[in-house]
Write a structure and sequence with these properties.
about 625 residues, alpha+beta, Heat Shock Protein 90, Ribosomal Protein S5, domain 2, Rossmann fold, 9-stranded mixed beta sheet, 5-stranded mixed beta sheet
Amino acid sequence: MVDSSKRETLGFQTEVRQLLKLMIHSLYSNKEIFLRELISNASDATDKLRFESLANPDLLGGETDLSISIQVDTDKQQLSIIDNGIGMSRDELIDNLGTIARSGTAEFLEQMTGDKKHDAQLIGQFGVGFYSSFIVANKVTVETRRAGLAANEAVRWESDGEGEFAVENIDRAERGTRVTLSLKDDQKEFAEPLRVETLIRKYSDHIGFPVSLSVVGDDDKEPRIVNSATALWTRPRSDVKDDDYKEFYKYLTHDFVDPLAWSHNRVEGKREYTSLLFIPAAAPFDLWNRDAPRGLKLYVQRVFIMDDAEQFLPLYLRFVKGVVDSSDLPLNVSRELLQQNPDLVAMRGALTRRVLGMLEKMASSDSDDYRTVWREFGQVLKEGVIEDQANREKLAGLLRFASTHGDNDAQDQSLADYIGRAGPEQDKIYFILADNYSTAVASPHLEQLRKRGIEVLLLTDRIDPWLVDSLAEFDGRALVDVGRSTPDLPESVAEASEDEINEQHRSLLEKMKKTLGSRVDAVKVSRRLVDSPACVVAAENDISPQLRRMLEASGQAIPESRPILEINVEHPLVGRLSTEADEAVFDDLSNIVMDHALLAEGGQLDNPAKYVQRMNKLLLDLNSGGAGE
């Protein structure tokens, strides 16, 4: 067993070593943010002590005034950030500063590209700002004692950021943490009092604890409180500048990019609370992990209660960041009590509507900001249409799709845009599901609709099959899948009934069905094709081919179903089939038509080798002239 009183030299976790190198490279042009990160950590530590002292007042030990102080030592080129917050034990220090416990570390590192702006965003999302100290320091020393532990249980951590760190027990009378940076020779500016004061005002004026500044060796001057020491969300909106909101967002989230929008609101009456909500500019790397920590930072009567209080917003708004400060909840509220609190339902509904209102405002202005929101969070908002029936109409208005109206794969068309362009005789909204844009826009299912000038939405996201199952209509117009066997097409397209047109070609249809056997459920004449010989469609009650492929890929057992083959009797290839007397040639051509229809909608062939044999035979016959005789 290691004697914890002695000095240990330990190695950083592999991911930490990688992160240190990447961070120093990516953030060097914005190196001053290290001070924001360290003050933010100190503020969190004081917040946590204030919360824990509610249940255990002895932790304060008579020192009830919580604060943060910054010391500048110009002679030694050192900068120290000191708090009298919760502090850390030896094990906590090693865990917090030697490893990255958060899940998804490998995925995070894989997303690093070498592009400084991109990588800086990722680093901020991951919340590892302490390591930014090594951008400006060649050595970092952390001395800390956890509240409630004896003075001789304090710990010192020290590292040059090169791969190892040392830990030893020390005597420290003061509760809390002191982080001392020994600055690099070319970073002397951060040992200049005026420079440090400017940065405190810039990055930490909104913190709800006093931040004081003192100069080592200058005994004539008392430490000066530099910030306003008033939590930003408690100030009137008229007193807060846009830059203040942006800096508070970065302090809160450790992001390095300005938020797209924010909403600062105070509710009074039966329930009293203040909320400050932000829409980020980029999705976190773990957005698709529905179990990842999420939620708002909760305060009760300005006392910090918990990070990631997920009860205040639905899961599909997990990208929203912010603070909620309630005057009504009990100070000892826990996650379990939040789940049982009846007032929370009303607060959750109001905060959800406020976020959706922010998004509606951005969307109505057709701004670049909303295009950014949709690019980053669009698929998550689609989850809301499926899960949140109360706000489904609002969310449907926020949806954006690619469409045959455009000439690229940009998802920038709203359902309201679609209706505005549709003729008065069109009472449906037509869409097609596909695995990707290229498959969707080239689908044979669109040919007749495109010829008639009828717009079709191109749905290619993995979540879209579930989306359209939940969203049956919008603004009184039903959503219709043109990939189904009997699409409800406008009268101008459906010039003859389905029964009439199939009866005219019954002999060919029956012969093809017999030839294709179990590959198809039925063979019918198509009313949707113009240029293609055939297409496959799903029966009205079958799941879509796209959803089937996704479920099968995830290992789920799906009931067997067979597609319907629709043929274009005006196409020369189908005309050739109707006159072909050679049974072997008819068999090959029928199966090739079927295979091409499957490939056109993104499907896979059950027997690719057989398809190749048939195609080779057909090509040889064409070359010899046999197929044309």
